[in-house]
Design brief:
By secondary structure, this protein is of the alpha/beta class. Helices cover about 45% and strands about 15% of the residues. The strands form two sheets. It has a five-stranded parallel beta sheet, with helices on both faces. Strands 6-8-7 form a three-stranded parallel beta sheet, with helices on both faces.
Length: about 240
Amino acid sequence: MGARPDEKDRILIVDDDPISLKSLVGVFRRDHEITVATCGREGVALAAQGRHDIVLLDLHLPDISGFDVIKMIKADDRVASIPVIFITSNHDVATEETGINLGAVDFVIKPFSPAVLRARVRAHLDLKRKTDLLEALAVQDGLTGLSNRRHFDEVLDREWMRAVRDAQPLSLIMADIDHFKSINDVYGHQVGDETLKLVARTMVEQVRRPGDMIARYGGGSSSLPKPMRWGRPWSRKVCAGA
């Protein structure tokens, strides 16, 4: 996750104190997109949408504690990597240690310095962007930008086990480009690479459901994914290209 260059970073503030909220919004509203939640469960629901780049979280909330909120966020694989910074009036070391052990990246004591808080948030956002980039490169095919074979295998295993557990069908489409070797032989490998990228873009434009995935399966292996060899029924979610 992380904002694109032409977008503002998105901050979720979870705090029920009007004075604290006004202060936090004032610190960040000029350069960031702000969303506010005034209770813990609302904060968890907003975080689960996956739209935010960082969470600023108070410890004392009217329904559940900030500790409960961060536990729920970190338990959700879709958003567990969102940095969470506790901003609280609690000064004791034990509370800070608990927050860090639960997955918070920082612990800020109220009243805070606006300049220092901005610097801390900026540092964690920069680190998150770099981490996201490294993670994307690890699962991405360098030529087409699609998921690579390694990521495809991981997702297929996970979706297969989900389908078996829920007794739901899963579909897999294997696609290949006819006479692709002729393109390389006649026009050269650069044109072949551009052809693969064009095919990848076209496939991505046609697959819009959040649960679907397109991957480049090529790499010289002719073996089929293990679930296919089991001969079980398919009807959702994974698409692999050559």
